[in-house]
C-alpha cells in the first residue's frame, strides 16, 4: 500500500539504442560485425513508369468489373 497514492512515480529516463542492446544482449559477440552497405543505385525511370501503367490498368479493369456487377438503373 502506498502512503500517497495520488502521487505518480517518476518515469525512468529514456535510454539509447546502445544501452538497450547492452541491457538485452550483454557484451557484443565477436562473431557479429557491423558493415556499411553501399548506397542503392538510382531506380530506372522506365521501370517505374511501366509499373505505374500496370497499376492504372488494373484499377481500370477493377472499375469495369464493378460496373458490370451493378444492375442497370431505370
Keywords:
single chain; 74 residues; mainly alpha; 46% helix; flat
**Strand proportion:** under 5%
H/E element sequence: HH
Shape annotation: flat
Helix content: 40-55%
SS-based structural class?
Answer: mainly alpha
* Topology, number of strands: 0
* H/I helix tally: 2
Radius of gyration: 29 Å
Q: Segments where pLDDT lies below 50 for 5+ residues? A: none
* N- and C-termini, Cα separation: 73 Å
Based on the structure, what is the oligomeric state of the protein chains? single chain
Please tell me the overall pLDDT: 83
The main β sheet shows up as:
none
Protein architecture, described:
With 74 residues, the protein is an all-alpha fold. It has a domain at 43-74. Helix content is 46%, strand content 0%. It has two helices and no strands. The longest helix has 25 residues, at 45-69. The termini are far apart. The model has no long low-confidence stretch (mean pLDDT 83).
Please give a quick description of this structure:
The protein has helices at 17-25, 45-69. The protein has 74 residues and is mainly alpha-helical. The chain has a domain at 43-74.
How would the blueprint of this fold be written?
Layout: H1 17-25, H2 45-69
